[in-house]
Design goal:
Helices cover 0% and strands 60% of the residues. It is globular, with a radius of gyration of 16 Å. The model has no long low-confidence stretch (mean pLDDT 85). By secondary structure, it is mostly beta strands. The protein starts with a strand and ends with a strand. 34% of the residues are buried.
C-alpha cells in the first residue's frame, strides 16, 4: 500500500522575489509531488512568470544550464499552442501569473522522481494552469503540460521559485508531498 504524505507547506504572507523550500527531499521517499496553489505577483506586467530551480544538498540553487525540459503551452483564448523549453535551460519549469487586481493566478502540480539518488537523474512531469495577461492587461487563461530532467546526478534536497525581472511573488501556497510504500 502507498500513501501520499504532506512533508511541508509554506505560504507567502509578505511579498518576496524568491521563495526557497529547503530540506524537503530525503532518502525516505523516491517520488515527490510539489503543488503550487494561488500564486499572484505584486506588479502587473505582460507575461509575468516565475521560474523553478532545484536546490542541492549544499544548499545552493542549481542555476546553470543543465536542465532539459519541454512543455506544451496552450492559450485558453485561442487555438494557439506552442512548445516551451530546450535541452539547455537554467530552470526546471515556468509558471505564469499576474496581480490579484487583474484576477491573475498560477497553479502547478509536479511529480519528481529520485531527487536524492546520486546514481540517477532527477526527472519531472508537470502541469500548470492559471490566468495571466497577454498583449493587453486583460486576463487570459493558460495551461502547460511538460516533462524535464536535471542533467547531473547530484543530491537534490529542495527547490526555489523566483519571479522574473525582480518583481515579487505576492501570494501562494507551496506544498511538498512524499509518496511512500508502506
Amino acid at each position: 500500500m502507498s500513501a501520499l504524505r504532506l512533508i511541508n507547506e509554506t505560504s507567502i504572507s509578505t511579498p518576496v522575489n524568491k521563495i526557497e523550500i529547503t530540506d524537503v527531499f530525503t532518502t525516505d521517499y523516491d517520488i515527490y509531488c510539489v503543488e503550487v496553489v494561488g500564486t499572484t505577483c505584486s506588479s502587473q506586467r505582460e507575461n509575468n512568470s516565475m521560474d523553478m530551480r532545484l536546490i542541492n544538498s549544499s544548499g545552493s540553487e542549481v542555476s546553470s544550464s543543465i536542465y532539459s525540459n519541454e512543455a506544451r503551452f496552450f492559450r485558453g483564448f485561442s487555438d494557439a499552442s506552442f512548445d516551451l523549453g530546450s535541452a539547455t535551460r537554467d530552470d526546471f519549469i515556468i509558471i505564469y501569473h499576474d496581480t490579484s487586481a487583474q484576477d491573475g493566478v498560477g497553479n502547478m502540480k509536479m511529480w519528481l522522481w529520485s531527487p536524492t539518488d546520486t546514481s540517477s537523474y532527477t526527472f519531472h512531469n508537470a502541469e500548470a494552469s492559471g490566468r495571466m495577461s497577454y498583449q493587453t492587461t486583460t486576463k487570459r487563461p493558460y495551461f502547460i503540460k511538460g516533462i524535464g530532467v536535471l542533467k547531473e546526478t547530484s543530491m537534490i534536497t529542495g527547490y526555489s521559485f523566483t519571479n522574473r525581472d525582480s518583481f515579487n511573488i505576492a501570494t501562494g501556497t507551496f506544498r511538498t508531498y512524499g509518496l511512500r510504500r508502506d
